[in-house]
Amino acid sequence: MKAYKLYLLVLLLFVFLTFSCKRTAKTALPIYGPSDFNPELVDVSLQNAMNNHKVSDFELVNQNGKTITQADYENTIYVADFFFTRCPSICPVMSNNMEKLQQTFLEDKAVMLLSLSVTPELDSVSVLKEYADKNGAIASKWNITTGDKKHIYNLARKSYFAVVNEGDGGLQDFIHTPNFILVDTKKQIRGVYDGTKDQEMERLIGDIKILKKQL
Predict the structure, then answer these.
(1) Is the same domain home to 21 and 55?
(2) Are 106 and 56 in a shared domain?
(3) How many structural domains does the chain have?
(4) Is 84 exposed, middle or buried (0-12, 13-18, 19+ CB in 10 A)?
(5) 125, 129, 152, 212: which has the highest count of C-beta atoms within 10 A?
(6) Is the domain of 91 the same as that of 113?
(7) Which long-range contacts link 157-160 to residues 24+ away (Cβ below 8 Å)?
(8) 51 lies in the same domain as 83
(9) What is the pLDDT along the chain (215 residues), one digit of tens a residue?
């Protein structure tokens, strides 16, 4: 009988420790730096950098023709992705999931979204406006942007580590990625997610809620 009670006590202790570890793991998000990514995604100039990485300042134009900068995302958590309006494959799924994020955090001013076109020469403001209307984007919550191609590709490769570090942002350069990147109020990357998968979207929503409590 004593042996049974001891076994039960050990079992209960194991279960308690297991759930405690899981709970602890879910109450804090890591801060990602260059060394946390596949080296192929990191510019050579950053591969040996200390892990105090921050997303660079940007200047883009949204679906309403408004200039968008880091100032528009000050004191907010945001999710960034890279897309193009003529994409027939993963982009519609990604845009649909961005719209779901928008609805989930619609009343939360501390959470925003940022989409950057990888074919800015084709995605003019009028094209983005039509795309935004089609996907129900609300500009105060979700900026769908265009801008200088080299600037956007530089952000993708050196700030968000979203794509393989090849190309110069020139005419023949083209990037395509399903990644959603979670950025905190200090411009630090806190998570990367596959924007085409429902399970990853659930994880992202959970991580945003964790991050809101952490900051």
Answers:
(1) no
(2) yes
(3) 2
(4) buried
(5) 152
(6) yes
(7) 157/41, 157/43, 158/43, 158/45, 158/46, 158/56, 159/55, 159/56, 159/58, 160/55, 160/80, 160/82, 160/189
(8) yes
(9) 555 444 444 444 454 444 444 444 457 899 998 887 776 667 666 655 656 899 999 999 999 999 999 999 999 999 999 999 999 889 999 999 999 999 999 999 999 999 999 999 999 999 999 999 999 999 999 999 999 999 999 999 899 998 755 555 444 445 788 999 999 999 999 999 999 999 999 999 999 999 998 87
Per the structure, the complete domain to which residue 198 belongs is given by 31-214
- Please tell me what DSSP assigns to residue 39: G
105 plus 133 within the same structural domain: yes
Query: Are both 18 and 58 inside the same structural domain?
Result: no
Geometric angle at alpha carbon 61, from 59 and 62, rounded to 5°: 130
Q: Whose CA is closest to 191, among 176, 173, 164, 209? A: 209
Long-range contact set of residues 85-88: C-beta below 8 Å, sequence gap at least 24: 85/117, 85/119, 85/122, 85/123, 85/127, 85/128, 85/131, 86/119, 86/122, 87/176
Tokens 């979700």, residue located: 142
**42 and 19 together in one domain:** no
Q: Is the separation of the CB atoms in 84 and 146 below 8 Å?
A: no
